Amino acid sequence: MRAHQWTLDLLSVLALGVAAAAGILVFDLTWTPIRLALSLPLVLLLPGYAFVSALFPERADDGFSLLERLVLSVGLSLAIVSVAAYVANFTPYGIRLAPVAIAVVGWTVVFAVIGLVRRARYPPQERYRIRWTAGDSTLPALFSVQQHGINTQRGPFEPENERQLLLNVFLVFSVLVLIVGGAYLAVAAPSLPDTEPHTEYYLLAENGDGELVANALPTELSTGSAEPIYVGIENHEGETQTYTTVVLQQQVTLTDDGSEIESVNGEEELDRFETTVQNGETERVGYELSPTASGDVHVWFLLYQGDVPEDPSPRTRTGLPV
What we know:
The chain is an alpha+beta fold. The protein is built from six helices and eight strands; from the N terminus they run ααααααββββββββ. A hairpin with a 5-residue loop joins β1 and β2 (212-213).
């Protein structure tokens, strides 16, 4: 068996994966026909086909036919892309085109190479290769119930009755919907922003290992003492922003169980400072927090873009309490 007979499909998968990565990430193609041609296989076929090829590298006359491999590849590809997007949501990059594309292309390349290695370990006559035999179903055969002899083997997805015929119609309709939906996303993606403009704001403090974490913020402060607090601001507004942080101290009365504020007895502005953050950048500003009142006290860090109102308050601006 010649090498191209059992490597051509996976080499094509590798080439299309690399071309998709280059077109989407390096050249930033926005011409929709090219983007469509690169994006659809990457979303609907390549990662699943590479995975199936790695799992089943051998040729089996009673195993998966080409049509069955393609149908399974489409379902697995959608699942793999969905998982990649879900995992990306929990990374600092979020659900954006670049990290999801890198994850999907990386998955495709790794399993395509594994598939080639596993096929090479089989004798040449047992290696899987694409071939369309007389036993494989043709598209018209999917939509007609044919009578066969007792010892005649039906092709994959060839219906035996009207119920299986309806299932085939639903299957083909679902695949068409996926293709149309993928085409729309591939065409519309260049005009859609990666994320809505927003600002991320958080407070951090050092733990015992010297790391800045949110769960190390102090819960008890003494009058006259200073606790280091770090104000984190991430700018995703699309342009450079200047923020004003107002540090507001409130003397409060708590409920009996101490879980909620029953009343606010007085407010005092302790400090305010400005921070300029470039678009896409993060600034962490160190601040020495030193309350001036005793008893039950809440200290708020209120973030403002633009002008600060004359009476800054948590009632008019979302803030972070300490």
